[in-house]
RNA sequence: GCCGGCUUAGCUCAAUGGCAGAGCAACUGACUUGUAAUCAGUAGGUUGUAGGUUCAAGUCCUAUAGCCGGCUCCA
């Protein structure tokens, strides 16, 4: 007797071994039809899996992540199968499901063009309709290698060779196509009701630039045609939020061909930027930071001492002054260290928090540039905290809380990663271990979930990274907290302890926004250009209905300016509908429509970007409403 | 940096190898207008740049720059 416990706690009993698919059928035909995979004792498996012992079972459908991934994984095999049918000489690499679809990497000796993509997609649709059932089989290692060698699939051979000893080596066959694969797969390709190839991109074999670049085909698949349409519409909508497009349309910033990676901020962008910076200063003053400003260009000597020359030279710009070698700073830390070093410090002063809105330049490779998100010159909202070792945990915790409180103001969701020692780094293993453990301790104390990003730390220390999402779901590192035992050593920093002896301080390097540029890029996409009133470059636009109201409008404009509200008037000889449309398109939070009635009553008619016509109110009521929104930083998303 | 694609007026986009165009924006004029686009007119271009093929190149070829999507890398 086999006892199978379902999700709802119900227990089914069977006399003989049975497939998960059959169990689904016994529960109901609806579930059977919708079923894509099975979660057996917590593991996602094929529906074809034979259950021969007591276990828990959950039938996974489209709404389950495991169900979606399984369907898309099979879709990637359909893609590979189609490619093999059309171009038998193409070599197969890997093809997993990813967040919104799947990809498969191929080694083809010809470029896969959009036209070829269309042909492949047609073939895929055929395969889907053929209703192929993936069949799983297992081979011992040597036979598996032999099998893939015979099929002339060198990448598969390499994959098998690198599988750990004792690992089961499984294959899936659907129709004439067989692929090395851990699974799981859906029971029939005809469950894929909508499939679409999206793009081709280069991708290094096994993600290393030392290896050959393969061609990666991205696609997505759904169980319903309408879901695919919805998804494509969603992607279209997301593209409208692209900060590069909105930056141009709303005249916030631009990047010109003359300065790739060097953004220009236009007047409206500078309003947003200046507000962010003054808010930053206000908060940091409260949190016990003082502010410094260090030079952009400093003698090359300093960068040898800091270790940047050895570990960061590739990313730096250099110049000469009076026959001496100088470097443009890629980081603010050495400057801050010189400030620290210029005075004696007592343990009583620690932790010493030196903030700096520092403009840094980094030579990023051209392919990495991306709007404001990845540039070659950016301002870090940096701070260097010098402290005693005993203060590490509290300080890191403090910075975590500071970052969290900042992101909450903007309504951001974030995730946290812990980046550990990279290959190219300096310092002893012991220092690195201590530093990494200190960060873990702080993360645990803060109760934060985090994922480990192996080998992605700074060359001088491990770091906690805060990632924010852009409009199409890519995440960007913004805030970071880096713990550093190396720089204090290199620069021979010290403080006088309670015992009157010299001691070595520890440093934290940290940013909240990350870079003002990147943060603004995220902000623009997050709000789709419709900034909350406190950040909006123009908060109120006054729209007289006819030129009879122009004088009244100008008077109100002055009075609003006196209240510290950013206002402008549209006195052009245009219809009111036209003026409103334009203000709306420019995402200005409030419009004041002024005609004969308002002039007569000395009132204002208010139109909100978000809620439309709010009707007439007194000038004072309007000012109070807007001021409250600004002062409380009220955000409607 | 690598792979693929793209680049035409300020913006969005047209133009079989055969006279470079439209809409919006700008400017001028008329309309004095009530909650998302009034009408008419004017101006705007060495088709990213440099070569080449051709009687003829926006269109084909080569190189190059920038951009877009990825890979790699990172705030």
Quick rundown:
With 637 residues, the protein is α+β, with helices and mostly antiparallel strands. The protein is built from 20 helices and 35 strands.
Spell out the blueprint of helices and strands.
Layout: E1 2-5, E2 11-14, E3 18-19, H1 20-27, H2 29-34, E4 37-40, E5 43-45, E6 50-51, E7 55-60, H3 65-86, E8 91-92, E9 97-98, E10 101-107, H4 114-130, E11 135-138, H5 141-150, H6 154-162, E12 170-174, E13 177-180, E14 194-204, E15 213-222, H7 225-240, H8 243-249, E16 253-254, E17 264-265, H9 267-286, E18 290-291, E19 297-299, H10 300-306, H11 308-312, E20 317-321, E21 324-328, H12 333-341, E22 352-361, E23 377-387, H13 392-410, E24 414-419, H14 429-446, E25 450-453, E26 463-469, E27 475-484, H15 486-490, E28 495-496, E29 502-503, E30 506-515, H16 516-526, E31 540-544, H17 550-562, E32 567-569, H18 576-585, E33 590-594, H19 596-601, E34 603-608, E35 612-618, H20 619-631
Parallel strand pairs: 1-7, 18-22, 24-25, 31-32, 31-33
Antiparallel strand pairs: 1-2, 3-6, 4-5, 4-7, 8-10, 9-10, 10-15, 11-12, 12-13, 14-15, 16-17, 19-21, 20-21, 22-23, 23-30, 24-26, 26-27, 27-30, 28-29, 33-34, 34-35
The chain binds one RNA strand of 75 nucleotides through strand 14, strand 15, helix 8, strand 27 and strand 30.
